[in-house]
């Protein structure tokens, strides 16, 4: 887990994180502390959820074993310390929000790719590699929220 500071803005019932025009509404769960804390805990791999598109296209025998199970539960004590938490709503296998957006290529090494093509054990996740369109769609809908 890493800690970072980022400006929080709230609009009525919605909380958005903004940094240089990037809006991450769909991909994050923000639990805002009360009173507001100057510390924000980042839990970038706090979910094992995958998208219907990924479920339909991944090999059925592939087990996504390198999810960080129960991280949100493990760090739930942060709420009692009045620390805001930011957690990803999707598995790192869908899109790794802890990677540079520029790493949107289809690198063989998962540590150098925003959208994984292989498991952390080097096994192909898909019978047919993801198209550039699918990769860009994940980036647009999950990171930038331009689907609406």
TrEMBL record:
<dbReference type="Pfam" id="PF05013">
    <property type="entry name" value="FGase"/>
</dbReference>
<dbReference type="InterPro" id="IPR007709">
    <property type="entry name" value="N-FG_amidohydro"/>
</dbReference>
<protein>
    <submittedName>
        <fullName>Uncharacterized protein</fullName>
    </submittedName>
</protein>
């Amino acid at each position: 887990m890493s800690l970072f500071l980022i400006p929080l803005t709230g609009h009525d019932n919605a909380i958005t994180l903004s940094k240089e025009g990037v809006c991450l509404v769909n991909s994050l769960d923000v639990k805002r502390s009360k009173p507001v804390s100057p510390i924000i805990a980042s839990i970038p791999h706090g979910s094992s959820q995958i998208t219907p598109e990924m479920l339909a296209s991944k090999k059925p025998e592939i087990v996504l074993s390198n999810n960080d199970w129960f991280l949100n539960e493990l760090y739930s004590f942060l709420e009692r310390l009045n620390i805001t938490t930011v957690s990803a709503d999707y598995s790192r296998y869908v899109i790794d929000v802890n990677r540079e957006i520029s790493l949107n290529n289809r690198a063989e090494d998962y540590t150098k790719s925003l959208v994984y093509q292989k498991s952390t054990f080097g096994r192909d996740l898909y019978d047919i590699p993801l198209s550039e369109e699918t990769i860009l769609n994940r980036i647009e809908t999950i990171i930038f929220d331009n689907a609406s």
